[in-house]
C-alpha cells in the first residue's frame, strides 16, 4: 500500500502500485503508521539535525479520493464513509503537527480527499504532462465536508480560486494551479517532479530549523483546521 524510505534527512513516503490509491481504512492506516515512524525517528535524532517528509505515489494517480466502492460494498455506506473521514482527519492532523517541513510530489491525478491529502503538505509540486487537481464533490453530488473547506481556505488564498475549486469542480493542470497560487511548481514528468521535491527537501534541511518549533508554528498557522477537526471528533464521541 505504501513504503517509507529514508535518504539521509529526507523521509520519502510512497503510495505504491499502479492503482488509484483510494483512501480506504487500510491505506489510511498504513499512511498513519508511516507518519508515526517518521515522528519517532525524528524524535530520536540529534537536536541539531532537521528532516523533511516527501509524499508521492506510483502510477497515474496521486490519490483518487475516498474508496466509495469499498463503502458501498460494506453494507453500511454512511458508517463506512464516516470511518474513512475520521481516519483521514487523523492523518491530516498528524501531518499538520509533524515536526518537519512536508512536501507533496503530486505525480498524477489528485481528486477530492486525495486533493485534501496533497493540500495538507507545506509545499506542493506537480507534474504538468499528466494529471489534474479536482475537487469532484459537486459533480458526484456530495457535500464537501466542512473541515475540507477549512483546509482549502487556509491553503488557497484567492477567493476566486477557491470558488473555482469547490463551486465549479474545475479540473486544474499543474500550470493552472501554479497560476492560481495553489501549488508551488510544475514539472515536465513524474520523475522530474520527484527530483524537484528531493532538491527542495535538501534545501530545507540545510536551513537547520528546529523541527519542534517548525511544527508548533504550523499548528498555529492551521489552528482553524485543527479546531474544525477537533469539533468533529468531539461530536462523534457524544
TrEMBL record:
Entry's Gene Ontology BP terms: fatty acid beta-oxidation
InterPro entries, per database record: ClpP/crotonase-like_dom_sf (IPR029045), Enoyl-CoA_hydra/iso (IPR001753)
Signal peptide (from-to): none
Gene Ontology cellular component list: peroxisome
Documented EC number(s): 5.3.3.8
This protein's UniProt keywords: Isomerase, Lipid metabolism
Pathway connected to this protein: Lipid metabolism; fatty acid beta-oxidation
Listed GO MF terms: delta(3)-delta(2)-enoyl-CoA isomerase activity
UniProt KW Isomerase keyword: yes
Reactions catalysed: a (3E)-enoyl-CoA = a 4-saturated (2E)-enoyl-CoA; a (3Z)-enoyl-CoA = a 4-saturated (2E)-enoyl-CoA
Family from the record: Belongs to the enoyl-CoA hydratase/isomerase family.
Record protein name field: Delta(3)-Delta(2)-enoyl-CoA isomerase
The organism of origin for this protein: Quillaja saponaria
